[in-house]
Amino acid sequence: MSELRTLKTLSPAAPRWVESILQLPTLGLLLRVGLASAYLIGGIDKAMDFPGAVAEQAHFGLQPAALWAVLAIAVELVGAVLLIVNRQVWLAAGALGVLTLVAMLVANNFWDLSGQARFMAKNAFFEHLGLICALAMAARIAVLERKEAA
């Protein structure tokens, strides 16, 4: 029995209307577009304002800043497209996850802050962690779907 089928039998059934929504043919695509949207927009914005992208990397202490800007643009654009088209999702999710991990560690260092700044950085840190987990779930779903289809 496939892992996906095992998970289905272990969990209680969702209401029919929820299952109907979750099984809509275009929902997977819409969810992947939503998950990739921040990366796609971020990559486009950085590419259109490369000096700003370099300044952003330098601001967070990432050197050489131009190299980090190029890497961020490439990972955001290529990763987002791969995720949206549902190809090499493991690679896209891994690359976007590592980029997000670097960003959350350098930009959301709540442990060095206090007051409102700490509160906001801590929230952003854990939002980024949730995003990394969502990327990992997207990769897991893609792998399980491919196994089940085989």
Describe the protein in words.
The protein has 150 residues and is mainly alpha-helical. The chain has helices at residues 3-10, 16-22, 27-48, 50-59, 65-84, 89-107, 115-149. The model has no long low-confidence stretch (mean pLDDT 92). The chain contains seven helices and no strands. 81% of the residues lie in helices and 0% in strands. The chain is globular.
Q: Secondary structure elements and their pairing?
A:
Blueprint: H1 3-10, H2 16-22, H3 27-48, H4 50-59, H5 65-84, H6 89-107, H7 115-149
SSE sequence, one letter per element: HHHHHHH
- Average pLDDT reading: 92
Poorly predicted runs of 5 or more residues: none
Alpha-beta content class: mainly alpha
Query: What value does the Rg take, in angstroms?
Result: 18 Å
Strand content is under 5%
Query: How many helices?
Result: 7
- Outline: globular
- How many DSSP-defined strands? 0
* Helix coverage percent: over 70%
Distance between the termini: 13 Å
Main sheet, how many strands, which sense, barrel?
none
Characteristic key phrases:
single chain, 150 residues, mainly alpha
Put the structure in a nutshell.
The protein is mainly alpha-helical and 150 residues long. It is built from 7 helices and no strands.
